Sequence to fold (452 residues):
Amino acid sequence: MAIVNKGFIGKGGDSYKRLPPGQSEVIQWPVLTYGPTPHVNLDEWTLTIDGAVNKPITLDWKAFNKLPFLELKTDIHCVTRWSKLDMLWEGVSLDELIGLAGGLTEDANHLLVETVEGYTTNVPVRDILNNQAMVATKTHGEPLSPEHGGPARLFIPHLYLWKSAKWVTRLTFSPVDKPGFWEVNGYNNYGDPWKEERYSDY
Amino acid sequence: MGTIIMATLGKKSATVITNNTWLVATVEKITIESPMVKSYFFRMPQPVNHLAGQHYELRLTAENGYQAARLYSAAVASDGSTLLQLSIMDVVDGEVSPYIFKQLKVGDEVEIRGPFGKYFVWSPEETRPILLVGGGSGVVPMHSMLSSHQKSGTTTPMKLLYSARHYDDILFKDDFLSSDDVTITLTQEQSKEWTGNTGRINSEMLSKVLEGLTSPLCYICGMSPFVDAVSNGLIELGIPSENIKTERFG
Fold:
């Protein structure tokens, strides 16, 4: 594209070379939920892993917190064009949760995610195995606040952040894909920040 | 994801333009809405067509090739013309808006694509009464919804409760100050000449504006703390959370 906006420098510097295309670094952590923030009582919190698994299971908060925690130091990327660098996330890896549910059945191709307030999203199974994803409860050693998805949110840092569903309560494995909330409301079905898979065509 | 799809028509290949295609837009007019917000009227290469509440991406390119883009809500309903109005706030420490605010002038070109977002939208097929609650520049998509609502001629009520800081900060004064469907509260206005509501949006203001709206669908747009305060207020007044749509920034 031939357009040049004379005098525009931007804040790129060198940091943008580390960022996916079209992203800008933020220091604050923005909140961009599509609805009211739910406040989840820990006594009532559950996480269910079901669908194409051998032994569907529901964990309460106490049982969940006895599991081994994984730590990921990573950058996060929001489709609204901000990225936050070098975050420290803690949670239980999806490999661990799948193990507790007796492992995946052969036809488990997609993960369909549900949250307490009805938000949904979808992600291919190959994107959540091998410590690529967790159900996170802490950042930088502090519990996730409700507006950032606390007490627990899904975390898949290599995809745009709408895939990392806040207030996650159910992980259902499925042979078939099912586009979730933003995926049917104009956003890309996969959401790779490095390929700028932001919006669907229509 | 390919933003440009090449399709073959006979022996020629034609470029199919989608909402993901960057288009060159020319600034045709700039109006000052408030000390922090200006409206930019862009002449697009093709007719503008969006739902009320949808937004567009505006992209700037530096001489070294660096690009930055931001999302801005369309400020009025589309009417089939090629003119697109975006009302843009000068964000302190921002990357894109300071350039737009201070340097972009009539005749300049930028890249724009869209529309995007199918959730925080209103269309005339929606039959529920509507309450819009906007804080600061969060009122921009609501201006689009009100103009679309007016144009459609529907008799379903749509009301706006709008929180701004000072009188000078009120956007779209020509439309809002004279409308019976718009209630404004000013959180920091000291002048005695202002006879309307003052202070942050509270339960009383929400109850008042909800009068006559049976089982409304509510839209809230603004900074995240504003959105949470208003949605908690509405939930306390008995509005189910599934009837509250929010759009947040900051």
Summary: The radius of gyration of chain A is 17 Å. The mean pLDDT of chain A is 93. The longest strand of chain A covers residues 82-93.
